[in-house]
Amino acid sequence: MKTQTKYICSECGYESSKWLGRCPACSSWESMVEERVQKGGRGRTPPPRGEVRKIQEVRSLGERRFKSGIGEFDRVLGGGVVEGSLILIGGDPGIGKSTLVLQVMERLAQSNVKILYVSGEESQEQIKLRGDRLGVSSENLFLLSESNLEGIFAEIETLKPDIVVVDSIQTVYHADLVSAPGSVGQVRECGGEIMRYGKGRGVAFFLIGHVTKEGAIAGPRILEHLVDTVLYLEGDRHHQYRILRGVKNRFGSTHEIGVFEMLEKGLIEVKNPSEVFLSERRNGVPGSVVVCTIEGTRPLLVEIQALVTPARYGIPQRVTTGTDSRRLAMLLAVLEKRVGLHVGSSDVFTNVVGGLKVDEPGVDLGLLISIVSSFKNRPIGAEVAVMGEVGLGGEIRGIGQIDMRIREAERLGFARCLISKNNLRGLNHHSPKRRSSNSIEVIGAESVEKALDLLL
Ligand code: TYD
Ligand code: MG
Fold first, then answer.
1. Atom 9, ligand 1: which residue's CA is nearest?
2. Whose CA is closest to atom 10 on ligand 1?
3. Which atom of ligand 1 lies closest to the CA of 266?
4. Which end of the chain has fewer CB atoms within 10 angstroms, the N or the C?
5. Taking a C-beta distance cutoff of 8 angstroms, is the pair 173, 147 a contact?
6. pLDDT (tens digit, 9 = 90+) per residue, 41-51?
7. Which atom from ligand 1 is nearest to the alpha carbon of 168?
8. Is 143 part of a structural domain of the chain?
9. Are residues 280 and 225 in the same domain?
10. What is the pLDDT of residue 90?
11. Pairing mode, if any, of strands 65-66 and 81-82?
């Protein structure tokens, strides 16, 4: 058997025959790690033969789903855990992955779903200690401290659970591989092995993966292509809000988010995130604008803040948090060229309040108005919500699901809504200028200049 060395990016799985300081695929620095591969090791077992069948003969999976009853969680999965599916939950260490999954499993276990929680990180006593804080006590929830993959499979054979949690995939190892647990080779091999095992037996698996900054431990991204569903738990450890974001989902819409709050009793779902994200808003502050974005299937109102100040030192800074920095550059160019506002020598900082990331063009207009509002030091009315995409010609473009967005603004008591004129036509054919749906006044503007005239 010949042993060969190759280098694999622990962030994204890119392979190279020589070491590189920076991964050409995902641009991470110092993420390449050495892997030893044994040529021919795989060849000993004959490749398993698949069976060709007519599509009509294949049994349809009923797509049985297990619902946890935690609405924010079930929705991100597209309506609960699909039987036999493979779900990856990634996130920074300490963000609350184990806490969330344990709470969800408790709820599932209460509704008679048999759960096996495998931990390679904590002892059963430690999990129990956390469980006590979270009020976990179901008799359908089983704990196992094990990190040998074959040992885990053996326990599954005897227990026959419906769902297995592996916390974390970086602690599990396959005895046939020489590399250490957490290495790219181990994580990939164990992930693949679990997928084949789970699909064959209809057992659903949750794989928990830490996002790491060190190259020696493989990140969860290298498993993304393999699994059915990828969720990331995000948020600032110093803030109480956590966002569970769907990145990939073979059984539902992606880009769905669930919002949770970390309290002493674990993660509690936030059913009304718009209210929460706007709760700390101060009225009458220049640079503050409320926009409505669609996250998955749900509208969400968020506050965008901008601070524009004369640049004192050297090159003006552009710092964005929560929105795309190239989008900001484009909006600043539109302001220079179409509105004649000279922001070129100012520092521009923008922020989406609440730690949310919004990357849809529907927030363009709000971002642009927040910049002008701060630049001119004039606040816009607190009762206005803004939604529209900005084109390079300074035109305001219509955006999707405008009705749903307006209704959300109305529900939260906004009195006025500024949208694209095109969207306004779609809303009401009779009066192209204004439309009043119950209590909210909807105003349309065709260009950025017009919108600024109306609001500032
Ligand atoms: P944990 O689920 O262990 O994170 P992960 O599995 O992603 O590494 O969560 C760890 C943090 O959560 C820890 O700093 C304490 C906090 N926490 C609470 O605030 N309330 C709770 O009820 C629990 C169980 C944890
Ligand atoms: Mg954990």
1. 96
2. 94
3. 22
4. N
5. yes
6. 554 556 667 78
7. 6
8. yes
9. no
10. 93
11. antiparallel
Q: Is the pTM of this model over 0.85?
A: no
Q: Are 242 and 96 in contact, with CB atoms under 8 Å apart? A: yes
Check whether residue 250 and residue 290 sit in a common domain.
no
Which atom of ligand 1 sits closest to the CA of residue 130?
24
The domain of 207 spans 64-270
Query: In the beta sheet, which residues pair with residue 268?
Result: 261
Residue 9 has φ and ψ, to the nearest 5°, of -75, 125
Residues 116, 232 within the same domain: yes
User: Model confidence over 360-413: pLDDT tens digits?
Assistant: 999 999 999 999 999 999 999 889 999 999 999 999 999 999 999 999 999 889
For residue 451, how far is its CA from the centre of ligand 1 (angstroms)?
A: 45
Structurally, how many domains does the chain consist of? Answer: 3
Domain contains 58: no
296: left (phi over 0), alpha (psi -120 to 50) or beta: left
Domain boundary, last residue among 240, 270, 300: 270
Give the CATH number of the domain where residue 257 resides.
Answer: 3.40.50.300
Query: In whole angstroms, what is the distance from residue 44 CA to residue 39 CA?
Result: 11
24: Cβ–Cβ under 8 A, 6 or more apart, which residues? 14, 16
Within a domain: 48: no
331 and 224 housed in the same domain: no
The answer to whether residue 68 scores a pLDDT higher than 90 is yes
Question: Last residue of a domain, which of 237, 270, 303?
Answer: 270
Pair (313, 186) in one structural domain: no
Nearest Cα residue to atom 21 of ligand 1: 266
- Taken as a whole, the chain contains a residue count of 456
What residues contact 22, with CB distance under 8 A and at least 6 apart? 28, 29, 30
Q: How far is the CA of 97 from the centre of ligand 2 (A)?
A: 6
Query: Ligand 2 centroid vs 326 CA: distance in angstroms?
Result: 35
Same domain, 416 and 306: yes
Top mutation candidate among 99, 119, 234 for ligand 1, by most atoms within 8 Å of CB = 99
Same domain for 280 and 424, yes or no, is yes
Is 57 within the bounds of a domain?
A: no
Q: Give pLDDT tens digits for 147-205.
A: 999 999 999 999 999 999 999 999 999 998 888 888 888 999 999 999 999 988 889 99
100 CA: nearest ligand 1 atom: 2
Which residues line ligand 1 at a C-beta cut-off of 6 Å? 91, 93-99, 130, 133-134, 262, 264-266
What digits encode the pLDDT tens for the residues 421-441? Answer: 999 988 864 444 444 456 899
- Does one domain contain both 134 and 207? yes
Give the Å distance between the CA of 116 and the centre of ligand 1.
20
